[in-house]
Amino acid sequence: MRIISWNVNGIRAVQKKGFIEWVEKEDVNVLCLQETKAHVEQLDDELVNISGYKSEWFSAEKKGYSSVATYSNVQTENVVKGFRIDAFDREGRVLRTDYKDFILFNIYFPNGQRDDERLQYKLDFYDTCLEHFEALRKEGKKLVICGDYNTAHTEIDLARPKANEKTSGFLPIERAWMDKFVEHGYIDTFREFHPEPNEYSWWSYRAGARGNNVGWRIDYFFISPELKDNLKDAFILQDVLGSDHCPLGIKLEF
Length: 254
Known about the structure:
Deoxyribonuclease I, Chain A, 6-stranded mixed sheet
């Protein structure tokens, strides 16, 4: 099974840049999108019902903000939208789809750059996620957790670590949560196959950052350790344009 995640920074914007054609050509079983910035009723049928796929949407209360969507061409057994916590769910950030062999979380984690209050919101969201994941693991569930985490974990995960030590997205307190996540056994799938530097998933629109590869790796696929033997590949599709993020993915075999 091939699963891809992409922060599209506006589904309607990326649709105009060949998104549907890309999906139809790409060998993908499940496609997780973040920051779709849309309610499903705002979208045309061609986009909602891409041939061969069923789509699920979870949108923020505020139009044009946040929101996630998951397309599948394999059978889903259950769909859950949000954590049943209003403070988080009103921003449309978490979409869970259950498949035969695992549970997939498509998550758009908050950005903490606005102010201290927003940073705390992000950290609270992180902690809620981990509690939720651990509860499911205790039930014997196997998890895939993908999306825009909005944090670069280690110095190798961004081009200019020293210059960003005091920037949200690379703050010690944010990175410490990523450490805790890994300490609980969750596996950064990309690093299982690619220990090398200069591999990023997001670039600022400013100062030619993408052309110069001055980027950040803030988009991830983590899996619970129970799925390690099923993980066969992990990749970043840096050549795919249309957003300030690029897609990334994994291949699982069962």
